[in-house]
Amino acid sequence: MKEPCAVDWLLKMKDAQVICLGSWPGSTKSHTEVESIEFLEGLANSKDLRFLSLQGGSRINKLPESIGNHRNLMILDLKECYNLEKLGEKVLRKLIIAWGANPNKGSKTKDSKNAKQPNK
Predict the structure, then answer these.
(1) Which residue from 43, 75, 77, 88 lies 20 to 30 Å from 111 (Cα-Cα)?
(2) What percent of the chain has pLDDT over 70?
């Protein structure tokens, strides 16, 4: 999927409450690798977004600050985003964030009030 198409597609998702990009839990066939984070700017119109999963996005090393602008976003799934180095403070403000899954040990889920940023 080319980024301009992805941005346009996401801009049309105005009423979406759940968006899952990346791998789907329990499925080995359904996986979309994210080339870069710029396409996430297309989520700007998704005012009702409550759950965003980028699980398994191995090429994601940071998230745009605009992710923190989603007032209704409650859960940000970053499991298996092993190269993620930076989360902006806006992103951490009020979310439940899941990250750092080890297939053999499960995953960690933190309320953002008690969450610590991954090491930079």
Answers:
(1) 43
(2) 58
